[in-house]
Amino acid sequence: MKIINRYICWNLLTTLALAIVVLSFILVVGSFAKLSGLLAQGVSVIPLLQLVLLKLPQILGYTIPFGLLLSTILLFNRMSVDYEITAVRASGVSLLQISAPAILLSMLLSFLCGWLQLYIAPNFNHDARWLVREQGVRDPLTILDEGRFVEIFDGTKISIDKRDGDRVENIHIYRLDDQGRLRDDIHAREGRLIVHAAEKILDVHLSSVSFTILDPENPGDRSATTYSSEFKYSVDYGSRFNRRPLSRRPKQMNLTQLLTYIVLYTEAGDNPAPLFVEAHKRVAMAFAPVSFILLAIPLGLQINRRERSPGILIGVGVMLLYYGLLTIFETVQDKSIVSPHVLMWLPNIACQVVGLVLLWRKR
Questions:
Q1: Domain coordinates in residue numbering, the chain
Q2: What pLDDT digit, counting tens, does each position of 69-122 carry?
């Protein structure tokens, strides 16, 4: 039995290590590719690499369970097709005994994923925000991203279609009040964003401008709109960055901080539900290796083909369904009749129930 356990552990660990390296490499390269446009805007490669590396614990929180899912399906599929499972079971070894090393490994990986999800990744995500903030203080234009709104500094969100140096096209500026409500809506066909780095001043020069002053109580009323061929104003972004506290968002809080804020919110009479959901989501995701392996073992045994592509496709499908459901449940938490934090456990429950039923049938 020791020989069988060593054989399964060695093959599973080698396949798992390769899967984690390949998947993590793909996601890291993808993350760097998204930021590569900043290189053309004068951002040094060093902070970009730091930003990608700070995202690595979060990436591993996904690639470890997914890698375990794929490697388990492929290993048990190969052992089944080569009749190794049949030979071992013919000698009196049950399927549960064969699966025990893989299940034990999944439990150990769940502890590792829990450590990453609950403590390491949130802290690193907060450090990544600090890095972006420091870069924004040096040159706020470098954090602009074509095609989406970016909160370039407190109370101002900017979206641009195209940027060439300090010249921008189709620029949209939202200015918010102290409560985060939309106050001004400025749109211009083109303009210039001129940074005075020494003084930390941003000069905004816009052409063909529509300027709408909004009532925060009635944001749909756009009757107070004026048009101008030119509009200029300056922003002291240095003082704005310095006076803005960089508080942690729920996704950047570790478990201890989440629990502390839940207690504080409850005592203050505020709604702690989003913090509850975030905490339960992370703990649930830590159990993904156990859920995936209970499902992967019988799925690997049911594939009657030697090719790897069916196993990989099934693994990708399970992963997309699992994390897709988590995302959907997190999105609809305010509209659900079930407690939002309970929804975070449904993908795990579904995987484990289906996996145990399939294992029972294969016993």
A1: 2-136+252-362, 155-243
A2: 999 999 999 998 888 888 888 888 888 899 999 999 999 999 999 999 999 999
C-alpha to C-alpha distances, 31 to 25, 37, 78, nearest whole angstrom:
10, 11, 33
Residue 360, C-beta contacts closer than 8 angstroms, at least 6 positions apart: none
d(CA 240, CA 140): 12
The Cα–Cα gap between 290 and 351 comes to: 9
Backbone angles phi, psi at 12, to 5 degrees: -70, -40
- Count of helices and strands (H, E) across the chain: 13, 7
User: pLDDT for 349-362, tens place per residue?
Assistant: 999 999 999 998 87
230: enclosing H helix or E strand? strand 225-235
What's the burial of 338, exposed, middle or buried (CB within 10 Å: 0-12/13-18/19+)? exposed
In this predicted model, which residue has the larger pLDDT, 88 or 217?
Answer: 88
CB 212 within 8 A of CB 184: yes
